[in-house]
Amino acid sequence: MYKKLFELYFKKTDPELAHKFAINIIKNPLLLKNPFIQDNFKNLNQKLFNLHFKNPIGLAAGFDKNGEIYNKVGKLGFGFTEVGTVTPEPQFGNQKPRVFRLTEDQAIINRLGFPNDGMFEIKRRMENSLPMGICGVNIGPNKQNAHESADFLKCFEQFFNITSYITVNISSPNTPKLRLQHKRENIKKLIEELHIKRDSLSSKIPILFKISPDINILEVEELSKVFLESSIDGLILTNTSIYNKDKLNSLNRIEEGGLSGPPIENTSNLLIQEFYKNIGRKIPIIGVGGIRDGKSAFEKIKSGASLLQLYTSMIYEGPFVANKINRELSLILKEKGIENISSAIGLNCN
Fold this sequence. Notes:
The protein has 350 residues and is an alpha/beta fold. The chain has helices at 2-8, 15-27, 119-128, 150-159, 184-200, 217-230, 265-279, 294-303, 312-317, 321-335; strands spanning 46-48, 51-53, 57-64, 80-86, 99-102, 107-110, 135-139, 165-169, 207-211, 234-237, 258-260, 285-288, 307-310. The model has no long low-confidence stretch (mean pLDDT 92).
């Protein structure tokens, strides 16, 4: 029923208006019930970052920008979720229109630019309703401070004690100069300052870094060395891409912004494989990009991802896509005689 609702309404309505409506549906427990949700697939259980994950499917940052539904998404079948991206000061983001459906490609292009209520309001909201499951907060800088580290440190200090992990977003293509943080000297400085801040707060919260898909092999090798030397806790691979648009079918392919969904699946998988070849299991990877069913999820795991996140398939498949993926992924593991998902990590890299 809900997939039909998404097809009839969400795909034909302004994307941001449809997104607000989806948030309100998920907020209301009377409107969103599915008696077929299964929340315990034993072969999908894992312990990572000293956290127990019931399943590997997470809701990526960008959907719950302002921390409104993090305690609701578990009922949809998600094993974890991520709020944000949160910036120190509230900001509107880029001018509208800024989100475009590419229905023929099952994809989205966005140039949102981190619209959010700001760290103080979102922190207040989360303190009034503390996360009951695994919930990360994705932090970033205000537009004018993208090349500096101060905004990351401000946000970290606000959320380190009320969330399961912190994701440092250095990879959105919609904030000018943000991707300069991928440069060796910049990322080393940022990691060091965040680790110093964490130590000063007597915290052990995991800090993850979200990386662009638009980097080359030499950059992967360079970043891998930095991450290993700095002993970071985890990676999220990858954010949206500014490439891979030429062969798409939708007329919206000409829009500027980051592309997400199936068209970046292979790019994401190949980058995950390259990082995995360099870092192995020393640094867990959360894989993102084009996940929509059990098969695509399994390919991400075999590429080297320990956990997964999705966003675009929520738009096209409906709110219970995570449960569908978990069911299919669990069955794939059983059919292949793999006792636990952890045994499938990086199989394509052996």
